[in-house]
Specification:
Elements lengths: L1 E8 L3 H8 L2 H7 L3 E6 L4 E10 L2 E15 L3 E9 L5 E13 L2 E13 L1 H4 L2 H23 L4 H9 L4 H19 L4
């Protein structure tokens, strides 16, 4: 299975790089992560519990970082065994690019599964992989990226009477619309 994607993160490239190398951040972001431990600067061990279709398994495995290019990216490779459920292995090339005040994270990933997992079918495996990647990036963006600058600016510009004024405008708009359609 091959998967590519990109995510915009509301933090500097240096902050995103630091988070991608922070065990505590990664542990919070990886779906089903039970443990993640650093063995060296480039090696980690992980334990992750996943549900893939009807198969539930706890995978124990190793993760290795290579092609380190701080703060621009790296290659991450991992393999894990889920006992009778089978195995999973894969790698991803991760690149970080400046994107205005934030960072654009691009990835190209390849994965392979075997055992009972391989019997589930490619479409289910692909859908699950995309779902897990989406969960990881939602979690990562929440942990690393602050609120979008436009949202923060709108919130700070709103005056104490502003919500009541907006509510009055909405009532008048919906009231007119209701009258035109035959009453409310």
């Amino acid at each position: 299975m091959d998967m590519t994607g990109e995510e915009r993160i509301g933090a500097s490239r240096e902050a995103v790089w630091a988070a991608l190398n922070d065990i505590d951040v990664l542990k919070q972001c990886i779906p089903g992560c039970q443990s993640l431990e650093r063995q060296s600067d480039t090696d980690m061990t992980a334990r992750v519990k996943l549900q893939i279709g009807p198969v539930s398994a706890t995978f124990s495995g190793k993760v290795k970082l290579s092609e380190l290019d701080p703060p621009n990216g790296y290659r991450i490779a991992g393999e894990g065994s889920g006992g009778a459920a089978g195995y999973a292995k894969g790698n991803a090339l991760v690149r970080l690019l400046d994107d205005g005040p934030g960072t654009l994270l691009r990835y190209e990933a390849k994965a392979d599964v075997g055992g009972k997992l391989a019997q589930l079918g490619g479409r289910l495996i692909d859908a699950t992989a995309r779902k897990l990647a989406g969960e990881f990036f939602r979690n990562f963006t929440t942990v690393v990226g602050p609120a979008a600058p436009a949202e923060a600016a709108e919130a700070s510009e709103e005056t104490p009477g502003e919500p009541a004024r907006k509510a009055g405008l909405l009532r008048r708009w919906f009231g007119r619309k209701g009258d035109a359609s035959g009453g409310t």
